[in-house]
């Protein structure tokens, strides 16, 4: 089962990656930039597996680059339990 098959699994996976990045000393801006790059890849290359991912893709596709970066930051904020 892929982490993308279930939105809760995806959020847990993303949370783990954010925690790892923070432990490695990455600042929030770097983490957000990485999240943007991942979001851009997923939107272009991966078919949404559930309703939540489909909504995120639709929001991503309807947004300009600045808005996409904001969406990526919001996703990081959503899973970062330290905030």
UniProtKB/TrEMBL annotation:
It holds the Pfam family DUF3243. InterPro entries: DUF3243, Uncharacterised_YmfJ, YmfJ/YflH_sf. It comes from the Bacteria. This is DUF3243 domain-containing protein. It comes from Tepidibacillus decaturensis.
């Amino acid at each position: 089962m892929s982490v993308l098959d279930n939105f809760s699994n995806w959020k847990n996976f993303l949370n783990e990656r954010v925690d790892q990045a923070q432990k490695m000393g990455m600042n929030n801006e770097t983490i957000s930039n990485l999240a943007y790059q991942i979001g851009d890849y997923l939107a272009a290359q991966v078919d949404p597996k559930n309703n939540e991912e489909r909504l995120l893709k639709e929001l991503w596709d309807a947004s300009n680059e600045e808005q996409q970066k904001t969406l990526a930051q919001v996703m990081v904020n959503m899973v970062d339990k330290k905030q």
